[in-house]
Write a structure and sequence with these properties.
Layout lengths: L1 E7 L4 H12 L6 E8 L5 H8 L4 E3 L8 H14 L4 E4 L8 H6 L4 E5 L14 H9 L4 E8 L9 E8 L6 H27 L1
Parallel strand pairs: 1-2, 1-4, 2-3, 4-5
Antiparallel strand pairs: 5-6, 6-7
Helix pairs in contact: 1-6, 5-6
The protein binds glycinamide ribonucleotide (GAR).
Glycinamide ribonucleotide binds next to α1, β5 and α6.
Length: 197
């Protein structure tokens, strides 16, 4: 069993899909979700994790002197629970080099677009879908990739396209892509774990 930690900032529906896959789906017997870390005390993901009796830690950036000490505390938490894999699931910060050095090719991120398009700083949530629709793209999608110390640049693990329909609002597109995200995140984790063996 691989020990997995999820980093979140918001609703946590992707985190939930990982927990559910570990409980009863394609990650059953392969993965145990041992820790959820949120940088946001009002993240609904914390409630979801508590409902599943998963250990949670909340760490707000403003309570730390600088970015390095903040990320270093996260690294200590990851090491305390002996995590094997880290999944960023709607986590809006980058994790910093101390963490990426310690867990190279073991940190995954999910992004609601077809990277390398529509990635980078500021490209999160509805900003992405607004940009995609404004630029009259024909398709969008979801990408799971290895996270590095930059925004959205690591090697792609799985990508799935989603068609953009006429009259789609950014929210319509976000909803349709989120559905796909929930399917591909557990698959990508499985693929990474199989390669670790
Ligand atoms: C998801 O669509 C995720 O891909 C996106 O935020 C949403 C979080 O939803 N992440 C990014 O935009 C990161 N650049 P969730 O909290 O319900 O999983």
């Amino acid at each position: 069993m691989k020990r997995l930690t999820v980093l979140v900032s918001g609703n946590g529906s992707n985190m939930q899909s990982v927990i559910d896959a570990a409980d009863n789906g394609i990650l059953k017997g392969l993965v145990e979700v041992v820790l959820v870390i949120s940088n946001n005390p009002s993240s609904y993901a914390l409630k979801r994790a508590e409902n599943k009796n998963i250990k949670t830690v909340c760490m707000e950036r403003k309570k730390f002197e600088n970015e390095k000490s903040f990320n270093y505390s996260i690294l200590k938490e990851l090491q305390n629970v002996k995590t094997d894999i880290v999944c960023l699931a709607g986590y809006i910060r980058i994790v910093g080099q101390d963490i990426t050095d310690a867990y190279r090719k073991r940190i995954l991120n999910i992004h609601p677009a077809l990277l390398p398009k529509f990635g980078g700083k500021g490209m999160y949530g509805r900003h992405i879908h607004e940009a995609v629709i404004n630029l009259k793209e024909k398709k969008s999608g979801a990408t799971v990739h290895f996270a590095d110390e930059n925004y959205d640049t690591g090697e792609i693990i799985i990508q799935q396209e989603v068609e953009i329909l006429e009259n789609d609002t950014p929210q319509d597109l976000a909803d349709r892509i989120l559905n796909v995200e929930h399917q591909i995140y557990p698959k990508a984790i499985k693929k990474v774990i199989e390669n670790l063996k």
